[in-house]
Design brief:
single chain; 633 residues; alpha/beta; Elongation Factor Tu (Ef-tu), domain 3; 4 domains; Rossmann fold
Length: 633
């Protein structure tokens, strides 16, 4: 199980001395990326093998796997060290991100082997999000390919400013210096366009081992460092200590009534006990009273350390807040311009509600506008109304509450975010903040002397929004109209917002694409909220096919003010009624994006009122709604 050449303690040294030396080594996180079959997995496997970092049983398993799965005619296939999934071994490609930890006498490393296929771009972005450096592989026979440009763009977008261009498979072009220099020149030109500041070009053969851990004897014209030598010595830290102090609070540490600390990892900068700090977004100021780290009390905390801070005053701070230098605090805003990389099969739609998680803080968010989509292969800016899987777009974001932030280029922890689906809680996008949008800062809510309670009292009723949803032809408008007549006759003040009627005015500029449907519901929900504020009972009759948008509408209202009414009609019955002949035209392909035919309908899961119209007549449905609304039989 042992490797005689691994860096274990000498007999004359204590284990404690060895562990202390190991702990003091710097850590470099890097990724390997590039096109399919450029040799990423082989390179990492060769790096681990030639660095004498494998145990005997690992070497034996590698030799066995090479005979079973290998692509090198019985010779060792180093790619199998990191291609761990069965599908990867069968196809000879990388699908998921494979992480490996290793260390040498000089440094510790975490390497992420990222997939090359375009369909796994989201996996590659995951690996790049925490990396300090990227090793971009290029096949010496092919030069720069589309996927090389795609990965380099994402490397740049996610703030990696150090790249090693590894021109691999030099053995297949007879170690041609001219070919290498041509590829290196092409990549330096691309890197300059993308804003990648530091590029080191390296010719190598991962299969043969040339310039991986030892100089390649067949390339005497190259006199630079090997790949391992460059990884061991490169400095990616830059001027970290000069950046202002930031600590996103991950946990309020309150073991007893005598202690209250705020735990988290220092995102940037450094701080000393006695320095003045500010807690954001509240803006409360105090001084740093103490620092606790895994070794005990300290006077100092710096970037990358996991610490617990104690403050001089009783300041209200909680998970998601940011403790920062009071002399150089981050900004506070609720609207941003940002790049978004979409990670879900269903497209990103403007106006749809998501959760945005930045650091330890989670807030509601909407993409209010897609400024343009970016062709990550050519960096061209293209018009777009939606963003599909693996696409990048430049967007405007609006949050439901302000957050402390910094541009991503200045601080990853306060400038990088993920978007989360509010139904499935799956991560659907990731992004980087560029700057805050200031246009709404001079707009404030004007408090009115007569509030909704007073307006409702003058009408003698409890205002509410009844949201009728169902397929076209389900009877929503018929039931809403009958209910309106009944309530009006009973002395209630009501109004009906009907889907067709609203499209003649307020929403006449919208079509029936998914993105237009989202905006259609957003506008109507805002109008309905104003009507409830006026003390009315508003009846909203819209297909509103998506649960996400119905939830967004619900969240505009106070508890008990929003009642979802599911007009439940089977598709076959709705088609049979079809008073406007819409279903027939939709099935003939004459009406695109028709709900129930070419566009989905997502039925409510927990509607307050359920109306199965195959069993109930319209008048019976009205009685059921009235019984729920005002308690009459």
């Amino acid at each position: 199980m042992t490797n005689p050449q691994s860096p274990i303690p000498n007999p004359g040294h204590s284990v404690a001395v060895y562990l202390a030396r190991h702990e003091s080594k710097s850590l470099l996180r890097f990724i390997t990326c590039g096109s399919v079959d450029d040799g990423k997995s082989t390179l990492i496997g060769r790096l681990l093998h030639d660095s004498k970092l494998l145990l005997d049983d690992q070497v034996s398993a590698l030799e066995s796997d090479s005979r079973r799965y290998g692509t090198q005619n019985g010779e060792i296939d180093y790619a199998l060290l990191v291609d761990g999934l069965a599908a990867e071994r069968e196809q000879g490609i990388t699908i998921d991100v494979a992480y490996r930890f290793f260390d040498t006498a000089r440094r510790k490393f975490i390497v992420a082997d990222c997939p090359g296929h375009e369909q796994y771009t989201r996996n590659m972005a995951t690996g790049a999000s925490t990396a300090d450096l990227a090793v971009v592989l290029v096949d010496a026979r092919k030069g720069l390919l589309t996927q090389t440009r795609r990965h380099s763009y994402i490397v740049s977008l996610l703030g990696i400013r150090h790249v090693i261009l590894a021109v691999n498979k030099m053995d297949l072009i007879d170690y041609d210096q001219v070919a290498f220099e041509r590829i290196a020149a092409d990549y330096r030109e691309l890197a300059a366009k993308l804003g990648i500041d530091h590029v080191h070009c390296l010719p190598l053969s991962a299969l043969k081992g040339d310039n991986v851990t030892a100089p390649g004897e067949r390339m005497p014209w190259y006199r630079g460092q090997t790949l391992l030598g460059h990884l061991e010595t490169i400095d990616t830290a830059g001027e970290r200590e000069e950046r202002p102090f930031r600590l996103p609070v991950q946990w309020v540490n309150r073991p007893n009534q005598n202690f209250r600390g705020f735990s988290g990892s220092v995102a940037s900068g450094a701080i000393r006990v006695g320095d003045e700090v500010i807690v954001l977004p509240s803006g409360k100021r105090t001084k740093l009273a103490g620092v606790l780290n895994p070794q005990g009390s300290a006077d100092f905390a710096s970037e990358g350390e996991a610490v617990t801070l104690t403050l001089a005053d009783e300041v209200d701070a909680s998970r998601g807040d940011v403790i920062a230098s009071a002399t150089h605090p981050p900004e506070i805003a609720d609207q941003f311009a940002a790049h978004v990389l979409w990670l879900q099969d269903a497209p990103l739609l403007p106006g749809r509600s998501y959760w945005l998680k930045i650091g330890a803080r989670t807030v509601g968010a909407q993409v209010t506008e897609i400024k343009h989509r970016i062709d990550v292969n050519s960096q061209a800016e293209l018009a777009a109304k939606r963003v599909a899987l693996n696409e990048v777009a430049y967007c405007n974001l609006m949050l439901d509450q302000p957050i402390a932030f910094e541009p991503y280029a200045g601080c990853r922890a306060l400038g990088g975010f993920i978007l989360i689906d509010r139904q499935s809680h799956a991560t659907v996008g990731c992004g980087t903040i560029d700057f805050a949008l200031r246009r709404a800062n001079n707009i404030h809510w004007h408090a009115l002397e007569i509030d909704r309670k007073a307006r409702a009292a003058s009408k003698g009723q409890q205002p509410a929004c009844l949201w009728f949803t169902g397929l076209s032809g389900s009877g929503k408008s018929t039931i809403a109209n009958l209910l309106d007549r009944r309530l009006h006759g009973m002395g209630y003040h009501t109004y009906v917002l009907d889907g067709d009627n609203v499209r003649h005015g307020l929403n006449k500029d919208l079509g029936f694409t998914d993105e237009d449907r989202v905006e259609n519901i957003r506008r109507v929900a805002e109008v309905a909220k104003l009507m409830v504020d006026a003390g009315l009972i508003v009846l909203v009759s819209f297909i509103s096919p998506f649960r996400n948008e119905r939830r967004m509408a619900r969240e505009l209202f106070a508890a008990g003010e929003f009642l979802e009414v599911f007009v439940d009609t089977p598709l076959a019955l709705a088609e049979q009624r079809d008073p406007k002949g819409l279903y027939q035209r939709a099935r003939e392909g004459k009406i695109p994006n028709f709900t129930g035919i070419s566009s989905p309908y997502e039925p409510p899961e927990h509607a307050e009122i359920h109306l199965p119209t195959a069993e109930l007549k319209p008048e019976q449905s009205v009685e059921r709604v009235i019984a729920r609304l005002i308690g009459e039989p």
